Amino acid sequence: MGKETRSILVGILLYVLFRNAVGYIWDIGSLSIRYDVPMSAIRIEREPSSCDFLRAPVGDKACHYSKDVTVGFLGRDANGLRVVCSDAQGNGCESAGKDHPAIIVSWNKVEEP
């Protein structure tokens, strides 16, 4: 492998890493400002890759993922797991901390016609 090829591959790798890191930080920062929630209370789940073009089998999967932003308050479900309650009254949770706003970004699969 020549020097030029290695330089190109390193450049592509750095671009991908930089783009993903900046995108993540940008998403957290913008959600924090928009909803007046501390950055530490925002969780962004990893976007699934099952619709990616290069995922096996290679080709168009006729789908994509859209963001689903849930804003609420930290609480615990019936099993004691931490969840985001739908509102300050704790609907959807066993116990909600009204002073702990939180945001979870999850992904919904959208099938394309």
Describe it.
By secondary structure, the protein is α+β, with helices and mostly antiparallel strands. The protein has a four-stranded mixed sheet with strand order 1-4-2-3, with helices on one face. Helices cover 29% and strands 34% of the residues. The N and C termini lie far apart (43 Å). It has one helix spanning 3-35, and strands spanning 42-44, 63-76, 82-85, 95-111. The protein has one domain (3-111). The model has no long low-confidence stretch (mean pLDDT 79). It is built from one helix and four strands, in the order αββββ.
The gist of it:
The chain is α+β, with helices and mostly antiparallel strands. The protein has one helix at 3-35; strands spanning 42-44, 63-76, 82-85, 95-111.
The strand count comes to 4
Q: Tally the helices.
A: 1
The helical percent reads 25-40%
Report how far the terminal alpha carbons are from each other.
Answer: 43 Å
